[in-house]
Amino acid sequence: GAVVSQHPSWVICKSGTSVKIECRSLDFQATTMFWYRQFPKQSLMLMATSNEGSKATYEQGVEKDKFLINHASLTLSTLTVTSAHPEDSSFYICSASRRAAVTDTQYFGPGTRLTVL
Amino acid sequence: GENVEQHPSTLSVQEGDSAVIKCTYSDSASNYFPWYKQELGKGPQLIIDIRSNVGEKKDQRIAVTLNKTAKHFSLHITETQPEDSAVYFCAASSWGIKAAGNKLTFGGGTRVLVKP
Q1: CB contact under 8 A, B44 and A104
Q2: What pLDDT, in 10s, does the model give residues A10-52?
Q3: Residues B33-55: tens digit of each pLDDT
Q4: How far is the C-alpha of A25 from the C-alpha of A30, rounded, in Å?
Q5: pLDDT digits (tens, 9 = 90+) for B47-85
Q6: pLDDT at residue A98, as a whole number
Q7: Which of A34, A44, A107 is opposite residue B46, by nearest beta carbon?
Q8: Cys-Cys link to A33, which of A1, A53, A77, B98 (CB 3.0-4.6 A)?
Q9: Which of B42, B96, B100 sits opposite A111 (nearest CB)?
């Protein structure tokens, strides 16, 4: 159990376009989903925390108008990178915490590699 | 906020030997400490976790120890195998204590190479 999927696994887009990444919890309901960004050979950087039915909470320095997060259901959260530029190229990873769990274990998706040309 | 430091950044061991990775944290309110394994091009996979009411936890070849007084915790991998080669991340959170307690703060990662 506790499987998280992401789609697409990789995407290449032109500068100025928008890209949507989906994160799904396949076999559990996720009250909270998290979005991370990871540069090569670096650790995970939390971008935002998303609770179902409410607005996402962004970390300091993360532009909320550029990285739009929607958590419309207990199994789906989306990250839209708007007007993408080459510096947005990165590995984006989501994670999800089980609903009503006694712990805050986060289960991670496989990641989405975004390349902006 | 919480700060987690992880050492070493790289670790090379011979197959069959043990590997130890250490992390220190700064926030005494932290009470949950997971370890993740990340293979190249993939998302992190939870391999073991420990809570502050426990000093040690073991799962087959993997064990984690926690010293709350010193604010450090360690991952021990025994009888290492080539498939253990990956990047390992420690993390900490203060679940149930703070409003944002479910956020994980990650260490910088340790690249482990197990040589056959």
Answers
A1: no
A2: 999 999 999 999 999 999 888 889 999 999 999 999 999 988 8
A3: 999 999 999 999 999 999 988 89
A4: 7
A5: 999 998 889 999 999 999 999 999 999 999 999 999 999
A6: 79
A7: A107
A8: A77
A9: B42
Both structure tokens of B5? 């430091």
**Residue A85: both structure tokens together:** 């530029």
For residues B77 and B83, is the Cβ–Cβ distance under 8 A?
no
* Chain B residue whose CA is closest to A94: B43
Q: Which two tokens stand for residue B14?
A: 């011979």
**Does B102 contact A107 at a Cβ distance shorter than 8 Å?**
no
